[in-house]
Amino acid sequence: MLKHLCTGVTLLTVFCLPMAVHATEKKVAEKKVIVHQLFEIEQDGRIGYIDSHGKVIVFPQFKSVRGGFTEGFVRVEQDGRWGYLENTGRQITPRYEENEDFSEGMARVRVNKLWAYIDRSGKEVIAPRFEEAGEFRDGLAKVRLDDRWGYIDRNGKLVIEPRYKDADSFHDGLARVRMESKWGFIDRTGKLIIEPRFSDADNFKHGLSKIKVERKLGYVNKKGVTVWQEN
């Protein structure tokens, strides 16, 4: 009888231990950082933030801020340097000459007159080497090297070589690029989908792009077919 009882206890321990570990892991997973809806305040010429109950979450300390919260971050400035404040109250220390909003989990920052990228933790993930840089969209970002625009992936690898006089971020899977004086469109592989023939062109939205040809406005679809043009 005692033998059977011990066996039962042993089995109970074996089966209960993983359940206990799982319960502990679940508690850890459920212990999330509190995200606040923050509201800007100003005191003695410095900017801080309160929550919806009026509780001060971030003591007024910033000289200025830019824009609102994007992907949980707002740009903040101290002593001529820019950083980020997260809506949890966490800061990425202001140390950059300039910075831009987060997009797809990465943000552009300028260091020694060159642009780099950081992630949400503030870690520099792409070293500063670009004359100018754009936000990540569809996994790619436009960058300028030697006065020409190309595109990098999230690892900082040039996937579309810099050869365009001007370029824009990807929208609806296509990006507008300028070769000489005309605009056209490429896909994410760099393949020219619509030949440069427009004096101006907007990004694609809902499958159409607003374009201009010889001062006449129109719309083209993703195959470059004109669906409407003014008389």
What are the key terms here?
Lipocalin, 23 strands, 2 domains, single chain
Identify the strand order in the major beta sheet: 4-5-6-7
Average pLDDT score:
89
Describe the sheet with the most strands: 4 strands, antiparallel
Distance between the termini: 99 Å
Strand fraction: over 45%
Q: Work out the number of β strands.
A: 23
**Total domains:** 2
What does the overall shape look like?
elongated
Count of individual helical segments? 1
In helices, the fraction of residues equals 10-25%
**What is the string of SSEs from the N terminus onward?**
HEEEEEEEEEEEEEEEEEEEEEEE
Backbone CA Rg: 26 Å
Query: Given the helix and strand composition, which structural class is it?
Result: mainly beta
Would you identify the regions where 5 or more consecutive residues have pLDDT less than 50?
Answer: 1-30
What is this entry, summarized?
This protein has 231 residues and is mainly beta. Helix content is 13%, strand content 52%.
